[in-house]
Structures are given as C-alpha cells and as structure tokens.
Design a protein that fits this description.
This protein is of the alpha+beta class. It has one domain: Immunoglobulin-like, CATH 2.60.40.1180. Helices cover 24% and strands 33% of the residues. The protein is built from 3 helices and 7 strands; from the N terminus they run αααβββββββ. Strands 1-2-3-7-5 form a 5-stranded antiparallel sheet. It has a two-stranded antiparallel ribbon with strand order 4-6. A hairpin with an 8-residue loop joins strand 1 and strand 2.
C-alpha cells in the first residue's frame, strides 16, 4: 500500500484513478440523467458494455472487461480507466469509460 503522498505523485495510482472517476461521474450529464442501454452484441465472454444516453450531451460508453482476452475500445474520448489500454483495446480486468457522439 502506497502512502497518499506517493499516490498523489502518480497519475496512474488507485487514488488518482478513483478521483478521476468521481470527477467524470459529477460532470457527465449522461451519467447523471441518461438512460441506460445495454450493448447485448458485445456483452459476452466476460465483457459487459453499456451506454448512458442523454440528449444534447456526449454518450458515455462503459466497457468492463472481466474476461481473459482484450476487447476493442470504442471511438471517442477516453474519460477514465482502471488500467492502461493496450493498443487501443481494453485489457482483461480493466474498465474504461468513453465519451462518444452517436
């Protein structure tokens, strides 16, 4: 376990990733007020994908990869992630949130 001081110095620390997720939840209207849509075509092999949609605002796409292989990301701005993407894909044991304009 790293001290708060050590974690504050690292952008990829658990502390900073959690702070970023809280900031995204507070600032993305789709997460605050949007409808939930499951992406059933991509929900398989340990991968869960859903969208939060709110008219006039970016759609937020969440990809939670609990599988054993990487899964493609979506085109859009990366809002936050629990781990680093690998070659534009979400690796196992990683969740990523993206802002898209559908």
């Amino acid at each position: 376990m790293l001290s708060v001081e050590a974690q504050e110095a690292s952008p990829s620390s658990s502390l900073n990733r959690t702070r970023r997720a809280i900031e995204v939840r507070r600032t993305q209207q789709a997460l605050l007020c949007g409808a939930l849509e499951w992406d059933n075509d991509r929900c398989k092999d340990g991968v869960v994908v859903f969208r939060r949609v709110f008219a006039g605002h970016p759609t937020v796409v969440c990809i939670a990869n609990m599988g054993s292989t990487t899964t493609p990301a979506v085109a859009g701005d990366l809002l936050c992630t629990s781990g680093d993407l690998v070659g534009g894909e979400v690796p196992p044991n990683t969740t990523a949130w993206f802002a898209t304009r559908d």
